[in-house]
Amino acid sequence: MAEYMRLRQICLVAPLLEPVISDIAAIMGLSVCYRDGNVAKYGLENALLPVDTILLEVVAPTQGGTAAGRFLDKTGNRGGYMAIFCCEDPDARGAKANAMGVRTANVITHAPYHGVQLHPRDCRAAFIEFNHTDGSDDVLGTYPPAGPDWQKHIRKDTTLALTDVKMESPEPDALAEHWGKIIGVAVTRGDDGTPMLELLNARFAFMKGPVDLMTGLAFEVADIAQVRERARAKGCKVKGDSFDLCGVTFTLT
Prior knowledge:
With 253 residues, the chain is α+β, with helices and mostly antiparallel strands.
């Protein structure tokens, strides 16, 4: 099978699922497609919203002692939790990461889906997961983590695409190089010299910041002013064409 690497899902974490998931849906004009009961065994609840063919997930702890809860404590409720990629062979991708010293944290198999999660301490900034769904490499095909009919919940009247993931690090070049080696994508440069990883359907940009963290998401929207005003009405901190929600900055383009 030919090699490929696509952004499949971004996972954010919140102390409580509500009103965060409802606010994201209302502001961005998105629809919840699934709530996965399988995450309960990790002491979590979740909800997923499709942004075209990329899933935006929010998880929240339902009990103490969860990895997500520790993440919130460590970061002060700031930062994205996971970047999830679909590829041709998660085990082979995980083995290459292991050879770099990046440990496997968890392996999940719910046929026809198979995922390999890498240790966030070794990845730096966030969890990385590689997954594959047997028999469905169609971007609009079966994807069990998003439920049986996630495609029917895609809305494009307000939000058209999730285009960029913003990462921060005291050493942005080194973090970009590290992530690039893990996911198998060469580092490029933006017009301003920002190190970037260009995937088939999204881009990761690495900025200077105090700690390694996923700090923002950029979205293409139909009407920036309308979305900005919805965010302000929900009490979000709005600055220019950006606002803060669920621990990250949403930037509108």
